[in-house]
Amino acid sequence: MGNTNASLAFVSFVEGSTARAEGAVPVGGVSAIEILATWGRDDDEPLRVQEALAGPGRLGGAGQGRRCAAISAVGSHERERRLVERLGSLGWDVAVRPEAGLVMEIHHPETCGSDRQYAMRAALEDGWRLRSEAVADGAGERLQVLVVDAGTALTVDAGVLRSGAAANGGAEFVFLGGAIAMGPGSLAEAITARGARLAPFEVDPDVPALGRSTVEALRAGASVGFRGAVRELCRGVSMEAFGGTRGVLVYLTGGARAFARAAVDETFPQGFRDSPHLVHAGLALAIRSAGSSSL
């Protein structure tokens, strides 16, 4: 549940799977991520969830055991409460913001948004899988990951994987922090809210910087200006966390990632992984690691 939109996804796990569902990151045995429904903050949230789960075959076999749902919410507490109640009434065990399984090397980790943590968990686990495929024992240089999440807000977060650092000799997934800024839609809303004579406008990722009218100039500011923010934050966070952009494994996610794609591509010649369902994957991995799911 984000600040603007929410979505419901069904995640399938297959042990040892390297299947790549379209648009999904194949992490930790995730073989498929199916988006069942997406809705806005003004929609009837509990009804949309009930309708999505009522469709034929929607449980994907989950009805054979415990039916476990997990919620990541950065929106209002009231929306979260209604959703938990509806899922409970439908017979689902509900986990709200389960531990992401990260070592949080930041100040006041209790204030860090759950969506940032789940996206980083999925990215680090996927990076670990990729490196293990390339090097048999997973050894080598420290894995450095950057997650760019473009939506209502823009977050650019850094994380590392430390092999053998955990108490049991396993890997530690470490969240190093990052930056939070406005997304393109939020930029558009903010400037029209403060400008008494500025009419609301739609943002477009493909506008030129040179606007030939007031509306075009506003669109340029929101879109091109946003790309500039993405570029500088990617460079700055990478430099301060990793010493540069070279060798960084980059993941791009979020509903407004089309606005960020060009800037991310410019900043990282090694490329990036377009991962629209990164938060869903991380949430599913978190609940499975916590032993809360029978998936």
From TrEMBL:
UniProt GO cellular component terms: cytoplasm
Compartmental location = Cytoplasm
Instruction: From the UniProt record, give the pathway where this protein acts.
Output: Cofactor biosynthesis; coenzyme A biosynthesis; CoA from (R)-pantothenate: step 1/5
Q: Which SUPFAM superfamilies match?
A: Actin-like ATPase domain
Swiss-Prot/TrEMBL keywords: ATP-binding, Coenzyme A biosynthesis, Cytoplasm, Kinase, Nucleotide-binding, Potassium, Transferase
Q: Which GO terms describe its molecular function?
A: ATP binding; pantothenate kinase activity
Q: Which reaction does this chain catalyze?
A: (R)-pantothenate + ATP = (R)-4'-phosphopantothenate + ADP + H(+)
Q: What is its EC number?
A: 2.7.1.33
Major site of localization recorded for this protein:
cytoplasm
Q: Name one GO biological process term.
A: coenzyme A biosynthetic process
Question: Which protein family is it in?
Answer: Belongs to the type III pantothenate kinase family.
What is this protein identified as? Answer: Type III pantothenate kinase
Native source species: Saltatorellus ferox
